[in-house]
Give the backbone structure.
Amino acid sequence: MHATAPFLRKTDFPPIRRNSLDVLQVNLGYRCNQSCQHCHVNAGPSRTEAMKTETAELVLAVLKARRVGTLDLTGGAPELNPNFRDLVRATTDMGCRVIDRCNLTVLLEPGQEDTADFLASHRVEITASLPCYLQENVDRQRGNGVFEKSIDALRRLNALGYGQSGTGLVLNLVFNPSGPTLPPDQQPLEVAYRRELSERFGIAFNHLFVLANMPIHRFGSTLISKGQFGDYMKLLKSHFSATNLDAVMCRSLISVDWQGYLYDCDFNQMLQMPMCIDKIPRPQLRDLLTAETDGLPIAIADHCYGCTAGQGSSCAGALAA
């Protein structure tokens, strides 16, 4: 696999600083039951990295001490980590919002048969990957049979009340392009998703989030192999919108890796660009118990253009939506 960090470090991206901390996004490990082409984490079934119990307990300590409103759980497939359910239980007991970034097919894996019920019983918000409403496109990007399993999982979630009016059980879907292009406008694509999924499969959801593909790890390596890396970076830079700078997720989110180290976002985590806290060379969760983060500079590189191109891109979809 080609390393993308050397192509990104030198940058003319404008400097930005942190606002108050609202979201702790925690990567529970890189193990996943899928190996998607666009995955910036390079997750897959053979990955063994997983957050340990003592680190998960530090997550809870930080949530309580800093009064963070949202715990955003990601991976890999976060549900495969043995600490996943204990984290969800403890966090919801605190009254915090919990987001599970779910690939849908994990809900059908052996040992996960009751995971959907567990999520519903704790009113966990689900943000689920579904890069298209057409089987051919999804299977090409994520593997044969993934689309059919995803539809099965969505039907199970709908049956529990997810995505249904009046239940309060939130089900959001995520679209990302299959190649080196910017995602289409979020609002009209959401209309198309809603129509197609309803008419074809009887599936309902709350919102669609569109995300740009980041030129790092598996996707970035593919771009390099195909000689498309430079053109994709030109595309991102040529569509830079300064109006997106105020809303980029790194201003109010801190990303935590499976070992407890801190980053300004999930993408910086994958590039091993640590968060800047005073003179600490590689900050950890324990540092958040005492350190102030408001106003700190955010570590930047050329991949940051991916979050600010066009309508913008974040873990909650388009910034300009």
Q: What stands out?
A: The mean pLDDT is 93.
